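Collaborator request, handled under Task 6.
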Amino acid sequence: MSTNSHRGALAGVKVLDLSRVLAGPWCTQLLADLGADVVKVERPEVGDDTRHWGPPFLTDDAGNRTNQASYYTSCNRNKRSITIDMAKPEGQALIRQMAAEADVLVENFKVGGLKAYGLDYESLKQVNPRLIYCSVTGFGQTGPYAERAGYDLMVQAMSGLMSITGHADGEPGGGPLKVGVAVIDVFTGLYAANAVQAALHARYVSGEGQHIDMALLDVSMAILANQASSYLTTGVAPSRAGNMHPSLAPYQDFASADGNVLLAIGNDGQFKRYCEAIGEAQWAQDARFATNTARVQHRGDLLALMVPVMKTRTTQEWIALFEDKAVPCGPINTIADAFDDVQVKSRGLRVELPRWENAAVQDGVSQIPGVANPIRMSGTPVSYRNAAPALGQHTDEVLHEMGLSAEAIAALRDGKVV
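Structure tokens returned to the collaborator:
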């Protein structure tokens, strides 16, 4: 389906993207970055919800604000956009035809939402037994909450993630907090992309596709990681501790002479080198601080000594002092600071993505900035073929590839099917 000559790791894989907002589109963007041809189906005239989630909005080449929210561009690059009204039988027939030729379908409708259109897994399996069908929902396909709508914020709260994020009750700013990014949506997209690729591999052996059931709540519970293990081992629910680590010390932020600095000391050797660097070598010999377990148990005593010392130098002075001593130390950056960091620049983590030519004509935006995919592969690297598409930009192109004539496409437009 793709006319691009790039051969990525997933080149030749056809993905039909019926998802919107973040979790599903994050999955399909990753597949697209890896070379898959992703065709995103959107609602005519409206499109993905996130096209309108602004401000901020993109500005055109003349500096004028457009009606395209920047949110959409964060998770829809390298895709082609086609508009289809799936509520109409003709629209359903088009999607079934596309599904018959697709390797993967990703959707995030409510449980059972696509069955009425004949676009659920069991229906499309009859059309294409090799289809890998990935459903992304808030709570999964089973269980008492299956039919509930699920949103990242709600799931962060329900899973306990907010109960371990933020400062402790009684401290300034204390109380549960959500993570500053819709992290459960993002992780769900990553898990879903992993599952899709595993299913593709399994299909090479079996010749059969399968249904993937991804749930935001499941993912949010899974990424509790060591905090979940702590509870399951002890029966005691972890609590909020600000930026401190429950199992390491010192592993947190400190006030410096001009702001804040972060220490991430993960072993006894690092702590010993820290103590020597600040002229307090005897701390590492103190029985209260000689091992990490002891430091965690006597965290209060340790911080009473460290806090005043850390205020004696600026953040950059601390970073410079520890840089050649293998003591993990760094600043607490704003996002602007991070993009200005020499390492971030060296790794090329900001990318300028060109629009498809007719998208620029459509909305006047010829280039959109984005964040590079962090996957570095020597033989089949990710590619940045194009920025997020304009709404319905590839409708005629994709329908033509499906074998429809110009007259048939015009009739679909007249009938407001596309």
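The cover message to the collaborator said: "The two ends are 19 Å apart (CA to CA). Confidence is low (pLDDT under 50) at residues 1-5. Please let us know whether this matches your experimental observations."
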